[in-house]
Design brief:
The protein is about 20% helix and about 30% strand. By secondary structure, the chain is of the alpha+beta class. It folds into two domains: about 140 residues, 2-Layer Sandwich (Alpha-Beta Plaits), CATH 3.30.70.580; about 160 residues, Alpha-Beta Plaits. Strands 1, 4, 5, 6, 7, 8, 9, 10, 11 and 12 form a ten-stranded mixed sheet that branches. A two-stranded antiparallel sheet has the order 2-3. Helix 1 crosses helix 3 and helix 4 packs across helix 5. The protein starts with a strand and ends with a strand.
């Protein structure tokens, strides 16, 4: 039975996160709460639009048998990904020879599944042909039957992008957090580097994170200026031509052996406060030692967050 690893990219704006989920309501009835945007009603229940649900359905249509798709990271609603990793297993027998008088059911079974010899690129193209425009499988690999996208992951990398501009963004609004003022990138970078190492990140975890331990190891954390966006020649200094913002893009990159619920967004919120001058960069060790969520900065919105990669042995 072959097992396949998918690398999946998606724009998270219209998704209710990665993981399949259904609201607790047993049924959708007239006069009840409206069905959430992007969801569908199936067998009397509102099924939320999630990446796992969409990709799993596409894979199932291609291999023509039930599959269980497991993802490496349960990204939240509105969070994007360039390098989400997911895996599934299916049958892989070609069925051999002609029909030989077999029943229609037997013939169908013989053509279900996906043998590796049929081609990984063909599998990728077949799945992508059944996916909506905001999600894409970028790579397919054969992995051992025991491969677990969650347990076997050794490191994950996230980015958080901030646009500093006096103008409200239009075209960029779905993938950046907008800061109305300039930020001190050097101070933010200095604070970010103080988070590197093994620490108790309780102060950077949302309540109800559900983990037995809040100790995590950050391998690297830094802040850099990606680019400075300028208005077209001749535009007024205070103009917002064509909806494209004048301003500076800052990117926070953080990688570690694992992350707590909302941990990266709270790190980003804390570094944002440092950039505004509301918090001192040298206070990071004290915040960590306090284990007090109230000492860290706010949780920034999901649109600036992106899962960049997941690394394995």
């Amino acid at each position: 039975m072959p097992r396949y690893r998918l690398t999946v990219a998606y724009e998270g704006t219209a998704f209710h996160g990665w993981q399949k989920q259904e609201p607790p309501d047993p049924a959708v009835t007239p006069g009840a709460a409206p069905v959430p945007a992007g969801s569908e009603v199936r067998e009397g229940r509102a099924v939320l639009r999630t990446v796992q649900e969409i990709v799993e359905r596409a894979v199932r249509e291609v291999v023509r048998e039930p599959v269980r798709l497991t993802g490496a990271s349960r990204t939240d609603a509105g969070v994007h990904a360039r390098g989400q990793v997911a895996a599934f297993s299916c049958s892989g027998d070609e069925g051999g020879g002609g029909d030989g008088g077999r029943s229609a059911e037997a013939t169908s079974r013989a053509h279900s599944g996906w043998p590796a010899a049929r081609g990984l690129d063909r599998l990728r193209l077949a799945v992508n042909a059944r996916l909506p425009e905001d999600v894409l499988v970028t790579a397919v690999d054969v992995v051992p039957e025991t491969f677990d996208p969650i347990a076997d992951a050794r490191a994950k990398g996230y980015s958080y992008t901030i646009l500093c501009s006096p103008h409200r963004p239009l075209w960029e609004r779905r993938w950046v957090f907008h800061s109305w003022r300039d930020l001190d990138a050097a101070a933010m970078d200095g604070a970010a580097r103080l988070l590197v190492g093994e620490h108790d990140f309780a102060a950077f975890a949302a309540a109800g994170h559900g983990r037995l331990t809040t100790v995590r190891t950050i391998f690297d954390c830094r802040v850099r200026v990606v680019e400075t966006a300028l208005a077209p020649p001749g535009a007024r200094p205070d103009a917002n031509p064509d909806g494209h913002c004048r301003g500076t893009l800052l990117r926070i990159d953080v990688c570690g052996n694992g992350f707590l619920y909302n941990m990266v967004r709270i790190i980003a919120g804390t570094l944002h406060e440092v950039g505004r001058g509301k918090m001192d960069a040298s206070s990071m060790p004290e915040i960590l030692a306090s284990r007090d969520r109230r000492r860290a900065g706010p949780t920034l919105p999901p649109e600036g967050l992106c899962l960049e990669w997941v690394r394995y042995e």
